[in-house]
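Students often ask why we bother encoding 3D structure as a string. The short answer is that it lets us treat folding as translation between two languages. Here is a chain of 751 residues written in the first language.
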Amino acid sequence: MNNEISRKSRRNDRIAEWLIKVGGLLVIISVIWILVMIAKVSLPLFFSPKASVSASFSLPAGLQQSRLLAGGVDDAGVKAFVIDENGNVHFFDAAAGQTIESLPVPEKPRGSRKIANLEATGKSSYNLVWDNGAASSLKVSCGSAREGARAGDVEHSLSVNEQLAFGPAGPTLQTFVRQVNDRDAVRVDQLESNRFRITHRTVEKDLMENEAVKVTSAEISDKPPAPVTAITLDGKGHYLYAGTHNGQIMRWDISEPGNPRLIETVNATSGASITALAVVLGDYSLAVASADGGYNIWFPVNTPGSGTDKRLTLIHRLPGQAAATNAIIPSNRDKSLASFNSKGELRIDHTTSERMLLSLNTGKAAIRHAAYSPRCTAIAALDADNRMTVWKLKIPHPEISLGTLLGKVWYEGYDKPEYVWQSSSASDDFEPKKSLMPLIFGTIKATAFAMLFAVPLALLGALYTSQFMTLKVKNRVKPTVEIMAAIPSVVIGFLAGLWLAPLIDKAVLALFISLLVIPALLLTVTLLWRQVRPYSKSGIMLRGNEFMVLAPVIVAGVYISWLLGGAVEASIFGGDFKQWLYSVLGVNYDQRNALVIAIALGFAVIPIIFTIAEDALSNVPRNLSAASMALGASRWQTAWRVILPSAMPGVFSAIMIGFGRAIGETMIVLMATGNTPIMSWSAFNGLRSLSANIAVEIPEAPLFGSLYRVLFLSAVLLFIFTFIINTAAEALRQRFRKKYGTITNKKAMMT
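And here it is in the second language, the structure alphabet:
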């Protein structure tokens, strides 16, 4: 019979062992699989951009002798076009290199014959200046850009914007036209002898809704110190930039009709001639290329003594060019720039990340014109041999680099480089800011404040419950605390955001005063009790029930702190502590701040640490405490010097499990901190953690877009961070176990 039982026990043990091994292996595989899947989504952020030649053809013989002013391509890369000086647009099948159709520019200005010069304004739009000085606009549409489309299936058309039409104005070197708003337009003409003429046209309405056109023209009186080699105008028609032969940039404010104003003259190079200027998408940054191969980004910044006008400042240095840049073409989608030089090199760079994304080459012939497709999915270049080359572009995440994710970046509108997370905006020209540092900082800050609040309370509570509290009371207290751990995070976050935060807002000073008042009251009551206890029989009755005396003392301390808070605020801080913080210390007070998260998240963590730590302390062999007190040690000395070191591996595990709960918490941090991605250790400011940011941003993130992949990258970082912490914690736990386990065994053998 005994053999049968023994055989069954061994069999069950083998089955249990097998199940445990399989279960553990499945857990490890699941964790690794999750990490791999998350990493698979985030890794494409760091893949190199790609470009492939989709078409390359020579223009027909009839166009070889024509003066071509511009070229372009549709988004699918199946149709290309060129504009000649006679005002005709020629469409080609890019794959076959055959002409599909030629269309004249509609609404050709009266008295004009040829196009004198042309300015590309993005998305296949052009401003045309004719030989009599008249100006008009042109929009070239190649229709749908679906994948796999054939050139013959793609519709095309030409259109004009009547508001950008200006009458004859005489010969000009270059002309720029911009639509300021629904009623206003501005024209800038570069004339001979480094002169500029500014013309504003405004459509005015009288009380009878009759329209009248008002034209205001003025010539800039400020003469450039050297011949002008490059000029450009921002998209809103507010600022005119001129680069000179000696490397200077002049910037004028031309927003006021008839009153152009020179803002500044800046030395942009070390004497090298400026060869190209372009305003980056968003009309804030200025791309500057020079004859020595320099390629930099400037934008206005508040500087000491600048007054109301910001001053152009060198912000980003792009990789140098192999030769002087002939032209810069801003992207219509992001802060990227295309540029080409006389050696036939076509480059694409991103200003914010300071990355050279692509370097393309048409061959030995120099590039004459280049243009993005409307959605910047393709780019076309026309070289000096009248050969057009079309590339399909795959640049999914140009703004992402290790520098933009983890380093300080100088963004448009900022006075210095900063860590910034700002993923979205209502504007198309918005510059995404995806620094992970504020999120990492917020995660660490939330965890640190919560653990600072939770660990002392949980450990001291566990020590008292296990070593001093009566068994009857303990059997009621411990299950109650364990039930607290089951409260949903969303409930705690809801209460913290809607009840606790306003409460602390009203009594923030009382909260700090309580840190002095409550310990002082407890110490006073303890000293008095020690004097009274020898003469009172109640001491025996209260053994293990000391909290019955201390709890009312704590309540009284809270009430006294509340009263003192109002009095101190009125007498010392002028009745408004938060205003005093701002006016004297320069500290802003956010209602949902680190104090709120410390209490709310600490409340969620305390039950976990308490329960595990109490079990570890209670499981220390009783003979150790009996031996300690037999040798004359007090209960507190025994608990502190014998029980706690013996239970240290379990206590440390409790702290680390609580740490893991705090660092990965989402809903409490989301609802109680205001979700402000700022980097400040102030207890009065909010924060945004990695987990909370994922919860906020992922529903609105475009599938497989930059934001989507960065959020998955933050999940990888959170995973790795917790893994490292848990691994280090386990190593320390094993050391504690080895160290204090040996001590415990020796003490047990001695007893």
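Translate back mentally: The first helix runs from residue 2 to 42. Keep this in mind for the problem set.
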